[in-house]
């Protein structure tokens, strides 16, 4: 045997899967992935589970820790980028595992159908802290179909002059839709900003006005 | 910044499954794959930022395969069973001698049959180097023995594969290998 020959032989053998094997591999990996999701949940190794759901305001990324829902992200936030950030800030032990988000996905369906006015899944507010978290904790107190101004929210949380800080607390809300920062408007009636874009904010307000 | 583990499954899941199939045979590959990724998920936060993830996964798969083999207290078996939907002719057991073309040579899984017929060392060397992308130095570490021995086992394995695995009806041109394949 001579080494040059064997190198050539190796180079001439193509291990790339043929089309048929690729299809079979994909379906096998999909099946194994589903098993892995369950095994990871059972072993408490899944720090973050996520899924995406289609809604009237576009695809929403939902991510939950064992403690609760930690992130809802709009398409325009770039779901891949959001997952990268979650990997850095929370944990890289992340799998697409819809099961942990089943209850929320169901509640979101009801919400967008106009038959649900509040969410009762557990929340994990660990992505925000201090004043921002204080504001975000207050937001669910704004009733479905109602709105408050940034100024009113500032007053409600006991910092009447912190209007701008309320604005940034709303803008950085890690749980849009579920924590209703869309119900906060400017004092002059303007929409203010929204993490999902103004069209999404308008759509949510219109949905709630209709169903109210 | 470390990417989400999901990305590791998406990028390396298929390659690791092929390694497991080559090492353990198709029936036992699924369990090894599951154990590999579950164990990798647990250890992922401690993996160095610049690590070669595929090599890391293949190394874990190797250890899981050893565990499985020990548990069964017998040698890894060649691939005898092909998934039903891929097995069309039932002739997969022919061709070991290298002279006969497979009737099911167009079968995408014929390769797994052929890989399963290789002697263990060649089979593992081919699996870890060609399917798992490990450099020969790391293959040698997993198999024991020298780097040169790993290289030789791997190229002997590939040479043997060229003799027995004949996709399409392409004839080889090498004089020693009248039915070798050139893909």
From TrEMBL, chain A:
GO molecular function, one term: methylated-DNA-[protein]-cysteine S-methyltransferase activity
Enzyme class of the recorded protein, top EC level: transferase
Domain Methylated-DNA-[protein]-cysteine S-methyltransferase DNA binding: 131-209
Gene Ontology biological-process entries: DNA alkylation repair; methylation
Major localisation: cytoplasm
Pfam family, one: Methyltransf_1N
Domain Methylguanine DNA methyltransferase ribonuclease-like: 49-125
Keyword Flavoprotein belongs to the record: no
Active site as annotated: 181 (nucleophile)
Cellular component terms per the entry's GO annotation: cytoplasm
UniProt-listed InterPro entries: MethylDNA_cys_MeTrfase_AS, MethylDNA_cys_MeTrfase_DNA-bd, MethylDNA_cys_MeTrfase_DNAb, MethylG_MeTrfase_N, MGMT, MGMT_N_sf, WH-like_DNA-bd_sf
EC code(s) of this entry: 2.1.1.63
Alphabetically ordered keywords of this record: Cytoplasm, DNA damage, DNA repair, Methyltransferase, Transferase
HAMAP family: OGT
Job of this protein: Involved in the cellular defense against the biological effects of O6-methylguanine (O6-MeG) and O4-methylthymine (O4-MeT) in DNA. Repairs the methylated nucleobase in DNA by stoichiometrically transferring the methyl group to a cysteine residue in the enzyme. This is a suicide reaction: the enzyme is irreversibly inactivated.
Name used for this protein in its record: Methylated-DNA--protein-cysteine methyltransferase
Organism the protein comes from: Subtercola boreus
UniProtKB/TrEMBL annotation, chain B:
Residue ranges annotated for the RNA polymerase sigma-70 region domain, each copy included: 8-74
Organism expressing this protein natively: Subtercola boreus
InterPro entries: RNA_pol_sigma-70-like (IPR039425), RNA_pol_sigma-70_dom (IPR014284), RNA_pol_sigma70_r2 (IPR007627), RNA_pol_sigma70_r4_t2 (IPR013249), RNA_pol_sigma_r2 (IPR013325), RNA_pol_sigma_r3/r4-like (IPR013324), WH-like_DNA-bd_sf (IPR036388)
Gene Ontology biological process terms, A to Z: DNA-templated transcription initiation
Entry protein name: RNA polymerase subunit sigma-24
Start and end residues of each stretch annotated as Disordered: 71-106
Domain RNA polymerase sigma factor 70 region 4 type, residue spans: 110-153
Family (UniProt): Belongs to the sigma-70 factor family. ECF subfamily.
Pfam families: Sigma70_r2, Sigma70_r4_2
Gene Ontology molecular function: any one: DNA binding
Gene3D superfamilies: 1.10.1740.10, Winged helix-like DNA-binding domain superfamily/Winged helix DNA-binding domain (1.10.10.10)
Keyword Transcription annotated: yes
Keywords for this protein: DNA-binding, Sigma factor, Transcription, Transcription regulation
Domain of life: Bacteria
């Amino acid at each position: 045997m001579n080494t040059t020959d064997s190198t050539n032989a190796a180079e001439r053998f193509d291990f790339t899967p043929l089309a048929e094997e690729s299809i079979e591999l994909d379906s096998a990996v999909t099946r194994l992935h589903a098993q892995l999701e369950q095994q990871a949940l059972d072993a408490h190794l899944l720090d973050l589970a996520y899924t995406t759901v289609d809604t009237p305001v576009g695809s929403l990324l939902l991510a939950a820790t064992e403690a609760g829902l930690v992130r809802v992200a709009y398409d325009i936030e770039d779901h891949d980028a959001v997952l990268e950030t979650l990997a850095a800030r929370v944990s890289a032990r992340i799998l697409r595992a819809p099961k942990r988000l089943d209850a929320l996905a169901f509640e979101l369906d009801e919400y967008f159908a106009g038959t649900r006015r509040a969410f009762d899944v557990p929340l994990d507010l660990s992505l925000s802290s201090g004043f921002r978290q204080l504001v975000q904790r207050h937001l669910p107190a704004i009733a479905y179909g109602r709105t408050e101004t940034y100024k009113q929210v500032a007053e409600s949380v006991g910092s009447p002059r912190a209007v701008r800080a309320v604005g940034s607390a709303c803008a950085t809300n890690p749980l849009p839709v579920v924590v209703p920062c869309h119900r906060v408007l400017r004092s002059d009636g303007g929409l203010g900003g929204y993490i999902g874009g103004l069209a999404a904010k308008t759509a949510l307000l219109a949905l709630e006005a209709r169903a109210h | 910044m470390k990417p989400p583990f999901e990305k590791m499954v998406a990028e390396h899941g298929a390659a690791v499954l092929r390694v497991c199939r080559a090492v353990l045979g198709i029936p036992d590959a699924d369990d090894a794959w599951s154990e590999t990724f579950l164990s990798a998920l647990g250890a992922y936060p401690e993996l160095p930022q610049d690590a070669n993830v595929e090599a890391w996964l293949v190394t874990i798969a190797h250890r899981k395969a050893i565990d499985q083999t020990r548990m069964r207290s017998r040698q890894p078996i060649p691939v005898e069973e092909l998934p039903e939907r891929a097995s069309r002719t039932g002739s997969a057991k022919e061709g070991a001698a290298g002279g006969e073309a497979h009737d099911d040579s167009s079968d995408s899984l014929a390769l797994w049959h052929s890989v399963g017929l290789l002697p263990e060392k060649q089979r593992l060397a081919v699996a870890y180097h060609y399917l798992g992308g490990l450099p020969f130095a790391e293959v040698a570490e997993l198999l024991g023995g020298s780097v040169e021995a790993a290289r030789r086992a791997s190229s002997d394995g590939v040479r043997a594969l060229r003799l027995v695995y004949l996709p399409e009806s392409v004839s080889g041109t090498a004089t020693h290998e009248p039915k070798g394949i050139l893909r």
